[in-house]
Amino acid sequence: QVQLVESGGGLVETGGSLRLSCAASGRTGDVAAMGWFRQSPGQKREFVAAITWNGGMTFYEDSVKGRFTISRDNAENTSYLQMSSLVPEDTAVYYCAVSAPRGSFLPLLDLEYDYWGQGTQVTVSS
Question: DSSP string covering 38-68, please?
């Protein structure tokens, strides 16, 4: 099993920035691609960003392109989501996810991920 712990969420004003972290532990050999998703109240969980196992490729949901940056440090088994120019529509619980090596090279769907964190709340005030 892989355990994921997110941190870095909080309350920020419109236009502000936050950096989320996702630390993996346990069977880290099962950590391949990493992704971030978010879920607002009453909404389904949506894809935000993903990164391949070696960090060579990334993909973003359209609304966060140019504002969010996903990265990873494999030596630390940690993924990061740098969020800038935040707007109230970014308010959500943000979840980190990991797919096992047998999975997609750059998974974009939540069903392609094998392990999930508990989530961290991000609130952007207007």
Answer: EE-TTS--EEEEEE-TTS--EEE-GGGTTTE
- DSSP structure string for 72-83: EETTTTEEEEEE
Kindly report, residue by residue over 99-118, the tens digit of the pLDDT.
998 878 899 999 999 999 99
Q: Give the per-residue pLDDT at 104.
A: 80
**pLDDT tens, residue by residue, 17-55:** 999 999 999 999 999 999 999 999 999 999 999 999 999
- Any idea which residue has 């504002």 for tokens? 67
Q: Which structure tokens are listed for 15?
A: 């236009």
Unique residue bearing structure tokens 């892989």? 2
